[in-house]
Amino acid sequence: MPQDAEMLSTIKSQVLQIIADITVAPKPTYYIDGQSVAWERYLAQLQSTVDWCEARLRDAEPFEIHSRGET
Description:
Elements: H1 2-24, E1 30-32, E2 35-37, H2 39-60
Antiparallel strand pairs: 1-2
Helix pairs in contact: 1-2
């Protein structure tokens, strides 16, 4: 899954850059042409995407299982 991990890492980096950009100068929620633009909700969705990427990257990491048999 190295290619998938690279893609997930790229997506995470891109989303973190968007978060950095929009939090420099936060904007209020506004309505335009009957449509609502809610920046807090957008930020929450971006943060959720970062969390999702981190979970998938954790799942892709190698792991070991240690067990002990009874004697």
